[in-house]
Amino acid sequence: MNKKLTELTLNELNIEKKKTKGVLTGLGLVMLIACGILVFLAAKSENFALIAVASGSFITLLPILIRLGQIEKEIKNREQE
Hints:
Layout: H1 10-45, H2 49-56, H3 62-80
């Protein structure tokens, strides 16, 4: 089911928002743990390039943040009508 947001009902949009938030939370926690491990390994091995990798890896969450913003914007537009 890969419909455009404008084709979804308000109930479906709320369900999509809840799912997207769950995915973002889960991936964010996994990313945070992975970054913590990378920083620990960087300090232990004195390979400080791993810190740059750890801090730069959060950009991978940007597409899901954009999608969540689009869903919230569509819900807001629907509720104003």
